């Protein structure tokens, strides 16, 4: 660039006029190199002279007019206009860098390069733009406006290119340190802003998470007032607790749930940060963000949380039994949905990544999955664990191949070894449990009755074993074939026409019947004992009817005999519980010489009320889980009680004085009795007084 050693004669007048008119073009960076030292050398003159003569902006023509006393129009430079000038200047600076890259210090001023004034002004305006975003202005979300996205990211790109050229041009390093520091500071600020925005977009723009945005997570970025300002851009439905993006309409978006325009913005930010030397920071934000989002998604969609091997082995079976179905669903969903989605997203935002980001996000989780499976197999063996273990075994067998294909070859060997180890342990454990079931039934001698007469866990475990042993037939055969290391003891000869499997089923059912009969005697309350036997009997019958294989083995004769036993338990329960209550509704002792004996009538009502309250209070805590059995019991009770109570009320209710006397002794109307009967067998712990008071209003 040609140097100018002559000072502009109109410089002083022009400066005064610029100050007077409030010229928007700042010369804050005009003489950043003038003050490098105290000397008034030739280079310092060049800075001032070239800043005014080499760069003529549209406002320069007005200088002459001002000096002649004419009013000059104010020319306002914008970031966009300065961007065009900077785009024209950068190739010049690049050319200078190439031409003087081999220059030595001995060449002195020959390598000097003047930086135009508008460069500093561009940096100032861009810094103002960043300040507005940091302060919450404007109130629109910039990444939802394509023009704003383009403007901001192009400005960032210009600053990055400028910094590269300045830092690689010797004359700039020698003479423009102040400008370089200023540009570097702005670049760092811009990259920090993009890093924060990348994180926010990554976390808040998901539309396919179950419960994507909650009040807590949404408040991390904006206050309630700020959210109101954004309601035209992003609508949060509190009823569905899900973020809805209007631009997407009703179009379903696959996991991970980013609209296409959001992915484009994320990719552009990543590209600009990488170009500016901040690619590592962007990747780190992505890794942390996607790991958190993935874990949050697994927790929300699958209720999955990480647990260590030690934690698994310390869990109670009740807890672990709930965790295993969650693990199965999570592993399957990761294999078919979440992991492929993570791989695709990483490739779209970071083209050419070749799966490295995906591996960092998911590999540890995959290893943790397999560790959980192996930990379950190492827990203490018990009969009830068989089917959950087989579920895990099948999940690994069926879902791992698809997951394996997502990882690069160098990681597949490690994962295969982990799966092989886990399946081997699971298979051996399943075989031991399968063979121990009969012994488990024989040795079960718990003395604590099941609360409420509910289905006993032993019944559930045993019948699930029988039912699922048929449904898992292929898997069990595979397990025995691949993992059996046992020398099976000689079995008793099977009955003619029955397979070993059928004989085992019959033997287990006989053991279970005897065990339940013994457990029913643990209840001091005979009606509750009947409820217990009805619950367990109905559960067994329903399981057998629900499995064609078991029904075929047990036969129709066995099913009819068991149904007849259930009817007998039902009759015994009704006689023991409601027969006594019906006795209070008889006519005996209420009349003398053809007249009603009121004291006896009042006592009869009081006794009925007290007895019914006690039955209601007790039997609302009893449990009948089978809806059909529960309905049958209630209907039969209602059919016996309501007609008798209605007839008693019609016959004797009129002999009580209206008002206080009626309210005192007639506590229930027939409709109240019917409503309260419908509360029985719910397993509730609330007292009957609350329910009664509610129905007496």
TrEMBL record:
Highest rank taxon of the organism: Eukaryota
Region (Disordered): 1-73, 212-232
Keywords recorded for this protein, A-Z: Exocytosis, Protein transport, Transport
GO BP term, pick one: exocytosis
A molecular function GO annotation: phosphatidylinositol-4,5-bisphosphate binding
Gene3D superfamilies in the record: Exocyst complex component Exo70
Compositionally biased residues, Basic and acidic residues: 1-36, 52-68, 223-232
InterPro entries: Cullin_repeat-like_dom_sf, Exo70, Exo70_C
GO terms under cellular component: cytosol; exocyst; nucleus; pollen tube
Exocyst complex subunit Exo70 C-terminal domain: residues covered: 327-678
Functional summary from the UniProt entry: Component of the exocyst complex.
Family assignment from sequence similarity: Belongs to the EXO70 family.
The protein's name in its UniProt record: Exocyst subunit Exo70 family protein
Species of origin: Arabidopsis lyrata subsp. lyrata (Lyre-leaved rock-cress)
């Amino acid at each position: 660039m040609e140097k100018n050693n002559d000072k502009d004669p109109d410089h002083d007048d022009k400066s005064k006029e610029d100050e007077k008119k409030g010229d928007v073009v700042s010369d804050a960076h005009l003489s950043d190199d003038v003050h490098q030292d105290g000397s008034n050398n030739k280079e310092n003159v060049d800075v001032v002279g070239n800043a005014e003569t080499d760069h003529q902006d549209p406002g320069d023509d007005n200088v002459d007019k001002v000096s002649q006393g004419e009013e000059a129009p104010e020319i306002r430079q914008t970031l966009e206009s300065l961007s065009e000038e900077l785009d024209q200047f950068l190739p010049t600076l690049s050319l200078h860098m190439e031409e003087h890259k081999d220059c030595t210090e001995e060449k002195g001023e020959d390598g000097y390069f003047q930086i135009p004034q508008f460069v500093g002004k561009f940096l100032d305006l861009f810094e103002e733009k960043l300040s507005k975003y940091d302060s919450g202005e404007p109130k629109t979300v910039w990444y939802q406006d394509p023009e704003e996205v383009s403007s901001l990211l192009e400005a960032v790109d210009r600053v990055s290119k400028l910094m590269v050229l300045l830092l690689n041009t010797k004359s700039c390093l020698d003479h423009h340190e102040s400008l370089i520091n200023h540009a570097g500071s702005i670049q760092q600020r811009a990259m920090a802003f993009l890093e924060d925005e990348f994180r926010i977009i990554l976390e808040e723009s998901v539309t396919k998470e179950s419960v994507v945005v909650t009040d807590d997570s949404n408040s991390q970025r904006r206050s309630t007032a700020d959210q109101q300002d954004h309601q035209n851009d992003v609508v949060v439905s509190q009823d569905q607790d899900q973020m809805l993006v209007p631009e997407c309409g009703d179009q379903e978006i696959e996991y991970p749930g980013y609209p296409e325009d959001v992915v484009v913005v994320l990719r552009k930010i990543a590209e600009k940060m990488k170009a500016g030397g901040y690619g590592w920071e962007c990747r780190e934000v992505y890794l942390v963000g996607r790991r958190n989002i993935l874990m949050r998604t697994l927790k929300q969609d699958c209720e999955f949380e990480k647990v260590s091997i030690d934690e698994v082995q310390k869990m109670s079976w009740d807890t672990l039994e709930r965790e295993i179905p969650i693990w199965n669903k999570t592993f399957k969903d990761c294999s078919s949905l979440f992991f492929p989605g993570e791989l695709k997203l990483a490739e779209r935002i970071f083209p050419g990544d070749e799966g490295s980001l995906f591996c960092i996000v998911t590999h540890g989780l995959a290893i943790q999955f397999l560790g959980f499976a192996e930990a379950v197999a190492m827990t203490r063996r018990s009969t009830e664990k068989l089917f959950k273990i087989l579920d895990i075994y099948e999940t690994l067998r069926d879902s791992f191949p698809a997951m394996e294909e997502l990882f690069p070859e160098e990681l597949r060997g490690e994962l295969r070894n982990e799966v092989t180890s886990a399946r081997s342990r699971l298979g051996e454990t399943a075989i031991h449990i399968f063979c121990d079931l009969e012994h488990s039934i024989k040795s079960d001698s718990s003395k604590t009755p099941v609360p409420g007469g509910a289905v006993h866990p032993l019944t559930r475990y045993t019948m699930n074993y029988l039912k699922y042993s048929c449904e898992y037939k292929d898997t069990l055969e595979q397990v025995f074939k691949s993992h059996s290391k046992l020398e099976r003891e000689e079995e008793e000869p099977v009955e003619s026409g029955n397979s070993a499997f059928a004989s085992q089923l019959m033997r287990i059912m006989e053991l279970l019947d005897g065990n339940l009969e013994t457990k029913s005697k643990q209840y001091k309350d005979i009606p509750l004992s009947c409820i217990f036997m009805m619950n367990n009997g109905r559960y067994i019958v329903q399981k057998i009817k629900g499995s064609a294989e078991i029904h075929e083995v047990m036969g129709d004769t066995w099913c009819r005999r068991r149904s007849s036993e259930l009817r007998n338990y039902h009759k015994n329960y009704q006689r023991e519980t409601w027969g006594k209550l019906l006795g209070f509704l008889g006519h005996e002792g209420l009349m003398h010489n053809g007249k009603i004996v009121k004291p006896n009538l009042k006592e009869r009502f009081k006794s009925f009320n007290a007895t019914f309250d006690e039955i209601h209070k007790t039997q609302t805590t009893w449990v009948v889980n089978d809806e059909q059995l529960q309905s049958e019991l209630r209907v039969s009770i209602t059919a016996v009680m309501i007609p008798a109570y209605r007839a008693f009320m019609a016959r004797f209710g009129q002999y009580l004085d209206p008002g206080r006397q009626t309210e005192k002794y007639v506590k229930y109307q027939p409709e109240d009795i019917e409503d309260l009967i419908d509360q029985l067998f719910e397993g509730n712990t609330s007292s009957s007084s609350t329910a009664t008071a509610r129905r007496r209003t």
